[in-house]
Amino acid sequence: MADKMALAKAINESLRHALESDPKVLIMGEDVGKLGGVFRVTDGLQKDFGESRVIDTPLAESGIVGTAIGLALRGYRPVVEIQFDGFVFPAYDQIVTQLAKMHARSLGKVKLPVVVRIPYGGGIGAVEHHSESPEALFAHVSGLKIVSPSNSSDAYWMMQQAIQSDDPVIFFEPKRRYWDKAEVNKEAIPGPLHKAQVVREGTDLTLAAYGPMVKLCQEVADAAAEEGRNLEVLDLRSVSPLDFDSVQASVEKTRRLIVVHEAPVFFGSGAEIAARITERCFYHLEAPVLRVGGYHAPYPPARLEEEYLPNLDRVLDAVDRSLAY
């Protein structure tokens, strides 16, 4: 049986299941307990599981992640929340020099099964440091898994898989999609955590995206269909590792690729995808791989964010340019 629920609720249900299934799972973060998180993603969990399992922490991101590392060393599986994307940087040192490195440093003897939840991206009219997309910064660091669901079903199952992983996972939650509803089948068998999924079949061009931009790409495909263009939409789901095989298979069929993400295009994840697919699919491509994303500038005030973020017209313009080759 499938239940229709918002993406935020799906994560809440997934965390609840993890707490029920494994006494070693803990949730930590600023206001995750009594308040239930600023987006209410952890609503009701402290009430049901107690303050020793769902822990309100001080406003100290470095301390939150550092404590989670210590708990993981003692056999726990901490799930920590960074309240907003831009607040993760005080914890960046702990994440990239400790959390990501311990497995290699110990020659595989030490595992750190920590999930770092980060609401990210724009579209909610927030103030500075509340709408950033820093996924490429973490994807550059070996030893970390980087994932981002685009819908409620993936949010539920990918959180389960992230918690069960013995490797640290940075779990980017698209905050503008928190209230989008979709069906979640809690009895289904999930696919691999890092496997991309074709969410719309097409023949003329591939749109590849993850997290908040997948819905936009589906809207672009709908608009393009009115002009007789048949676009494929590929939900990458995982940024590191990235399922290049699925991207390659789609591009070999459509012969064109546009990568869409909210993060700045300059040195963004789309650049790596473009380079790798150009290497793999050089003789299949009928146009250069194009990228649509944010600008190489600080995230703007709320009144200007719609000019900064990729939108329907900007992606359709890229579609026109690609098909013009």
From TrEMBL:
<dbReference type="InterPro" id="IPR029061">
    <property type="entry name" value="THDP-binding"/>
</dbReference>
<dbReference type="InterPro" id="IPR009014">
    <property type="entry name" value="Transketo_C/PFOR_II"/>
</dbReference>
<dbReference type="InterPro" id="IPR033248">
    <property type="entry name" value="Transketolase_C"/>
</dbReference>
<dbReference type="InterPro" id="IPR005475">
    <property type="entry name" value="Transketolase-like_Pyr-bd"/>
</dbReference>
<dbReference type="Pfam" id="PF02779">
    <property type="entry name" value="Transket_pyr"/>
</dbReference>
<protein>
    <submittedName>
        <fullName>Alpha-ketoacid dehydrogenase subunit beta</fullName>
    </submittedName>
</protein>
<keyword id="KW-0560">Oxidoreductase</keyword>
<dbReference type="Pfam" id="PF02780">
    <property type="entry name" value="Transketolase_C"/>
</dbReference>
<keyword id="KW-0786">Thiamine pyrophosphate</keyword>
<feature type="domain" description="Transketolase-like pyrimidine-binding">
    <location>
        <begin position="5"/>
        <end position="180"/>
    </location>
</feature>
